[in-house]
Amino acid sequence: MNQSSEKEDRMLEAVLSDKLQASGNKDILTHTGFLDSRQCALAVQYCRRLGASPLLWGGFDDAERRIAVFLPDYLDEDYAKGDEGPLALLDVSVPKGSPRLSHRDYLGSLMALGIERDVTGDIIVREDGCCIIVLKDMAEFIASEYSKAGRASLSCTVQPLSSLKLAEVRTEDIRDSVASVRLDAVCASAFRLSRGKAQEAIRQGLVSVNGLQCLKPDYQPDEGERITMRGKGKAVLFSVGGTSRKGRFYIEIKRYI
């Protein structure tokens, strides 16, 4: 890890510590800005060392960018995830006949407004515009300023988070048996590779578990952990079942397609 990454990680830990302490001392909901998948994994690890368990929420279940939420005892996760929580939805539309805009177009024009990246979460592109998950306290400002992306004019309104409609996420169920529940074996099953190819990809730094690069082929992933291989996509180790007569472990994987 380079010095820049180490400094960013220390800054994240300081923010998490402040938010956790404020939530406990003031008995209020606190949260970070949006974190990428690697930062989310680091946040969980750091908070566990402090005996805490933050809610990671990005507006919908499979969001890549999420905030870490710290809840007082009198509030539950449903509150944080609902319309009263800290996130809002920006509904962005383009005039009929405008050129199709990409994720990069929308993100670039957002950053041109001078806002920080941690203010915005996932951008869901559709034919006639996009939906953007944002921090609620910045939603009205962004909506009032966000008027152009590329060569297209934009119309932007703030909507309750519950109005978000997503296309169905397509996954493939993969059932297999492995000699041991190691990362190389799971990757081989998930991405249809030989065990040797999977080991090579892991050692080359192409594989991440919950957003953190993993260089150990013998790492044993837990159920629910998300595994990403660069160039191959992502999958989740959904379940680990019993063993066969030959002592092999039955596993079920959900691969995103």
Would you report the number of β strands? 15
Rg from C-alpha positions? 20 Å
Class by SSE composition: alpha+beta
Instruction: Estimate percent helicity.
Output: 25-40%
Structural shape: globular
- The whole-number mean of residue pLDDT values reads 94
SSE order: HEHEEHEHEEHEEEEHHEEEEE
The biggest beta sheet is recorded as: 6 strands, antiparallel
Instruction: Give, in spatial order, the strands making up the sheet with the most strands.
Output: 10-15-14-13-11-12
Amino- and carboxy-terminal Cα gap: 31 Å
**Parts with pLDDT < 50 across at least 5 consecutive residues:** none
Report on the structure:
The protein has helices at residues 3-26, 37-49, 77-81, 103-111, 136-145, 183-190, 195-203, and strands spanning 30-31, 55-57, 67-70, 87-93, 120-126, 129-135, 148-149, 152-153, 155-159, 171-178, 207-209, 212-213, 226-229, 233-243, 249-256. With 257 residues, it is of the alpha+beta class. A six-stranded antiparallel beta sheet has the order 10-15-14-13-11-12. The model has no long low-confidence stretch (mean pLDDT 94).
Q: Briefly, what is this?
A:
By secondary structure, the chain is α+β, with helices and mostly antiparallel strands. The protein has seven helices and 15 strands. It has three domains: 3-81, Ribosomal Protein S8, Chain: A, domain 1 (2-Layer Sandwich); 87-163, RRM (RNA recognition motif) domain (Alpha-Beta Plaits, 2-Layer Sandwich); 171-256, RNA-binding S4 domain (Structural Genomics Hypothetical 15.5 Kd Protein In mrcA-pckA Intergenic Region, Chain A, Roll), CATH 3.10.290.10.
